[in-house]
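Priority: low. Protein: DNA-binding protein. Input follows.
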Amino acid sequence: MTEQLDPQPSTIEALIRQVVREEVRAQRDADAARARPEVAIVDPLRLYSVTAASGILAMSKVWVYKQIREGHLPVVEFGHTRPHQRIRAVDLQRFIEDRVFLCSD
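Result:
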């Protein structure tokens, strides 16, 4: 919901308040959009490396490996002697959704 500017504000102060209010609202909306990036899953079979998953989660690789080791984040392993771990997009999405916390005041 955007507030329309008054075409003829009564004073210059009223005009300045309107402009500042719009700028603050736009900045707040931009900050909120950056704080909550959407993870769009196009292909449910898509696999992410631990590095890519850590980037999506904005957490360190060490933290992601800890989540894997503790069984919170499932992985698919490829290779015999030195397995490469990959995280399915659906598992990453579920991991994120399971940790959504809605604060009610």
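The mean pLDDT is 82. DSSP finds four helices and three strands in the chain.
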